Amino acid sequence: MIDILKRRFGLLGRNISYSFSKGYFTEKFNDEIFAGNSYENFDISEISHFTGLLKNNPDLKGLNVTIPYKEQVIPFLDKLSKKAALIGAVNTIKFTKKGKLKGYNTDYYGFKKSLKPLLEPHHKKALILGTGGASKGVAFALDELNIPYTFVSREAKENIIDYNLINATTFDNFQIIVNCTPVGTSPNIEACPDLPYEFFTEKHIAYDLIYNPAETQFLKNAKEKGAVIKNGYDMLIFQAEKAWKIWNK
Predict the structure, then answer these.
(1) C-alpha radius of gyration, the chain, whole number
(2) What pLDDT, in 10s, does the model give residues 78-132?
(3) Which domain holds residue 122?
(4) 59 and 91 assigned to the same domain
(5) Catalytic option among 6, 28, 55, 70
């Protein structure tokens, strides 16, 4: 049996008082099976403060990583898992017995597991809104599902289109739309990505990585047109449990 007594875990990010992870793991650790474990937020204003955080908390055993540090934290790590290296983003850090920091990505796993039950044969291609660390995990999951995708950003670049190019033809060609941006999260719940929502149909999936609110304006707009909608809550649960397994293996 794994010795799970008196171990400290936490979440690395910026402006994370709303954090899903702290609430989830605190509730998990309230179970007497996990008694002795604790979970806290480490809210730092810039990634350079990470070194000091480690120095002041030598007993940490694992961290989750959220916006905006999923990519920025990588140079501070000693090693990456094969998939984290391929993805180029980390959302889970394990502190090894030798005192090394190893980065993993469980976002892709959570997204893949939560999307898979929704897929139908006509869901052939995906649009990924946003190009940050979270979008990289989504792209990797889509690769594993053999679903081609295109990134959307405010500025067109190589392999990235801008929002102005999205029209009826785009919606004909892309049946899965994934919001990986923070647009629409609480407290700015009336905001939504700049899309022509009238082109959503019952053949589309609208997936929002945001979980608060449970139904974002993006999801509401898509739902009105008959689209299948999904928020990021299940993804977060799946990725959190995967992180827990990594910390305990």
Answers:
(1) 19
(2) 999 999 999 999 999 999 999 999 999 999 999 999 999 999 999 999 999 999 8
(3) 108-232
(4) yes
(5) 70
- List of residues 6+ apart from 181 with CB closer than 8 A: 129, 130, 132, 193
What total of structural domains would you count in the chain? 2
Could you tell me the CATH number of the domain that includes residue 180? Answer: 3.40.50.720
Q: Examine the residue annotation and report whether 79 is marked as an active-site residue of this protein.
A: no
CA 25 from centre of chain: 16
Q: Are 77 and 170 in a shared domain?
A: no
Same domain? 27 vs 84: yes
Angle at CA 66, nearest 5°, toward 200 and 142? 45
The answer to whether residues 51 and 93 touch, using CB atoms and an 8 Å cutoff, is no
What's the gap between Cα 244 and its chain centre? 16
Decide the pairing of beta strands 176-179 and 126-129. Answer: parallel
pLDDT tens profile 13-65: 999 988 899 999 999 999 878 888 999 999 999 999 999 999 999 999 999 99
